[in-house]
C-alpha cells in the first residue's frame, strides 16, 4: 500500500505531464479499439502521474473504462439504461455490465449505449465456491467474465451454468429466511421476492433490504455484520459451481476470466494459485482508492492481468464507489485488450462460421443476441447474408481485424441467403 500513498501525494501536487512514447502507443491502440477506427484523433495527449490519459487532443476527451457494474437484473438499483446514462455522465466510454449470474441486462445496455456512442463489454459475475481438501478453507469466490461484442460462443453452456446458480439462489434465499425466522426475525418470502423484482434471483442484499424494511436491523451493513456474513447465523450457500470449473468454462467459451475483489477472500494466495492453473486471465487489483500493492504483487507473481472496477450497485451512500471512479492506467488497458482481443476475435469467427454453415433462424438469433436492433435495423436494412456479416464486423471488430480472408469465405457462403426485417432467414430463390 506504500506506493499507493506516494502516488496519491504526487497526484495531489498536480502536475500533468506528456505521455511517454509507450503510453502514446498504448493510448492509440486502446482508442482504435474503442472507436473501431471510425474516428481519427489528434496526437497530443496529457497524462497524469498515474499514466491515465486525462485529455486527448483539443477535445479534452478521456477514455474511461468501467469494468465492474451491476443493474436491476441482479442486485443493482438501476436499470441497464439508467446505468449506461450515469456512466456516460461520468465520462465512461467502455462499460462492462457484470450482473451476478445473468447476462439478461446486456441487450438493454447495448441499446442504451448506442445513443451515447459508448461501448458495452458483455460481462457477468459468476458466483462460485472454492473448495479445497480442507473444508475449513472453503469460501465463496466471484469470477468476472468479459466477452466480446457477440457474446460467448456455445452460449447454451454458459447459460446453463448461470441458470443452475440462479435456481440455487432461490433455494438459498428461502433457507436464509428460514434461519432468520428461527432466530425470531420473521421475514416473508414474498417480501424478499418483491424487493428482488420480477424474474430476478434473490440474493443476500435483497434479504438484507427486507430486514431493514421489516425493522429487524437499522441498515444494510448491520444486516450483513450480524446475520448474513459468510458463515453468519443466517448465511446459506446455494448451488454454485467450483471456481476452477467456471474459469475453465469462461476460457472455453471465448471469455476473459478475472478474480473479483480478492481483498474479500480469506485465502487469496491459495485461490489465485489454483485458479491460475485452471486458466485464470486476471484479477482485480485497482479500486477507486488506487492500486492495492499486495494484490498487484500477487498478480505479478502469477503473470495475471491487473484490472479493477467500481462494483457499482447504485445503493447510494458515501461508502459506494462511483461508476467510472477507478482509474485504470492506459498500459493496463492495453495489456487487457492485447489478451482479450484475439480471444474475442476467435469467438466472432466461430459464431459467424456456424451461421454460414447453417443459416438458420436460431443461429441468426445467436448473432443478434446482444444487439438485435443495431444489427438488423442499423442505418439501412440488410438485403442479404453478406450485408449481415459486414454489419456485424463493422460493429464488433477493428478495420484491421476485419481484413481477413476467413470473413470473405463466410460472406461468399451467405450470398444466397436473405434476411427479413423481422430477423428471419429467407432463401433468395423464394423471393
Ligand atoms: Zn462480487
Ligand atoms: Zn460485483
Description:
This protein is of the alpha/beta class and 431 residues long. It folds into 3 domains: 2-56, no CATH class; 64-326, TIM Barrel; 342-430, no CATH class. It is 46% helix and 14% strand. The chain is built from 17 helices and 13 strands. Strands 4, 5, 6, 7, 8, 9, 10 and 11 form an 8-stranded mixed sheet that branches. It has a 3-stranded antiparallel sheet with strand order 1-2-3, with no helix packed on it. Helix 6 (189-196) packs across helix 7 (204-213), helix 9 (243-252) runs parallel beside helix 10 (268-278) and helix 12 packs antiparallel against helix 13 (361-367). 43% of the residues are buried. The structure holds zinc ion (2 copies). One zinc ion binds at residues 68, 70, 125, 260, 311. This is Polymerase/histidinol phosphatase N-terminal domain-containing protein.
Short description:
With about 425 residues, the protein is α/β, with parallel strands linked by helices. The chain has 17 helices and 13 strands.
Write the layout of secondary structure elements.
Blueprint: H1 2-12, E1 17-18, H2 21-35, E2 45-47, E3 53-56, E4 64-66, H3 80-89, E5 92-97, H4 106-116, E6 119-130, E7 139-147, H5 155-182, H6 189-196, H7 204-213, H8 220-228, H9 243-252, E8 255-259, H10 268-278, E9 282-287, E10 290-291, H11 293-301, E11 305-308, H12 330-357, H13 361-367, H14 372-376, H15 385-396, H16 399-402, H17 405-413, E12 417-419, E13 425-427
Parallel strand pairs: 4-5, 5-6, 8-9, 9-11
Antiparallel strand pairs: 1-2, 2-3, 6-7, 7-8, 9-10, 12-13
Helix pairs in contact: 2-12, 3-4, 6-7, 7-8, 9-10, 12-13, 12-17, 15-17
The structure holds zinc ion (2 copies).
Amino acid at each position: 500500500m506504500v506506493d499507493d500513498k506516494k502516488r496519491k501525494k504526487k497526484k495531489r501536487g498536480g502536475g500533468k505531464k506528456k505521455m511517454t512514447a509507450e503510453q502514446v502507443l498504448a493510448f492509440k491502440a486502446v482508442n482504435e479499439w474503442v472507436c473501431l477506427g471510425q474516428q481519427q484523433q489528434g496526437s497530443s495527449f496529457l497524462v497524469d502521474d498515474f499514466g491515465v490519459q486525462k485529455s486527448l487532443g483539443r477535445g479534452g476527451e478521456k477514455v474511461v473504462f468501467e469494468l465492474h457494474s451491476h443493474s436491476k437484473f441482479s442486485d443493482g438499483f438501476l436499470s441497464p439504461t439508467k446505468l449506461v446514462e450515469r456512466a456516460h455522465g461520468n465520462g465512461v466510454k467502455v462499460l462492462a455490465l457484470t450482473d451476478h449470474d445473468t447476462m439478461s441486462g446486456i441487450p438493454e445496455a447495448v441499446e442504451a449505449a448506442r445513443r451515447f456512442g459508448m461501448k458495452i463489454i458483455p460481462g457477468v459475475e459468476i458466483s462460485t465456491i472454492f473448495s479445497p481438501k480442507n473444508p475449513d478453507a472453503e469460501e465463496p469466490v466471484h469470477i468476472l467474465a468479459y466477452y466480446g461484442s457477440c457474446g460467448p460462443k456455445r452460449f447454451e453452456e454458459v447459460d446453463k451454468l448461470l441458470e443452475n446458480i440462479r435456481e440455487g439462489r432461490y433455494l438459498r434465499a428461502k433457507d436464509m429466511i428460514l434461519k432468520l425466522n428461527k432466530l425470531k426475525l420473521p421475514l416473508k418470502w414474498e417480501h424478499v421476492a418483491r424487493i428482488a423484482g420480477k424474474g430476478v434471483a434473490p440474493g443476500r442484499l435483497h434479504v438484507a433490504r427486507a430486514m431493514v424494511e421489516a425493522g429487524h436491523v437499522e441498515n444494510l451493513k448491520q444486516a450483513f455484520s450480524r446475520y448474513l456474513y459468510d458463515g453468519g447465523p443466517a448465511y446459506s450457500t446455494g448451488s454454485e459451481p467450483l471456481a476452477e470449473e467456471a474459469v475453465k468454462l469462461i476460457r472455453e467459451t471465448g471469455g476473459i476470466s478475472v478474480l473479483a475483489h480478492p481483498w474479500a477472500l480469506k485465502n487469496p494466495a491459495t485461490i489465485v494459485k489454483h485458479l491460475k492453473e485452471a486458466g485464470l486471465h486476471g484479477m482485480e487489483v485497482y479500486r477507486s482508492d488506487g492500486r492495492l500493492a499486495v494484490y498487484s504483487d500477487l498478480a505479478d507473481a502469477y503473470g495475471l492481468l491487473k484490472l479493477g472496477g467500481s462494483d457499482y450497485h447504485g445503493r447510494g451512500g458515501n461508502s459506494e464507489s462511483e461508476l467510472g471512479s477507478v482509474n485504470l492506467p492506459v498500459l493496463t488497458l492495453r495489456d487487457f485488450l492485447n489478451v482479450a482481443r484475439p480471444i474475442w476475435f476467435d469467438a466472432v469467427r466461430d459464431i459467424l462460421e456456424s451461421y454460414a454453415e447453417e443459416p438458420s433462424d436460431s443461429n441468426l438469433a445467436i448473432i443478434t443476441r446482444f444487439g438485435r436492433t443495431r444489427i438488423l435495423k442499423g442505418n439501412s436494412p440488410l438485403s442479404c447474408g453478406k450485408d449481415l456479416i459486414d454489419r456485424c464486423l463493422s460493429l464488433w471488430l477493428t478495420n484491421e481485424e476485419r481484413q481477413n480472408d476467413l470473413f470473405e469465405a463466410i460472406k461468399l457462403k451467405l450470398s444466397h441467403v436473405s434476411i427479413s426485417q423481422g430477423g428471419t432467414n429467407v432463401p433468395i430463390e423464394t423471393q
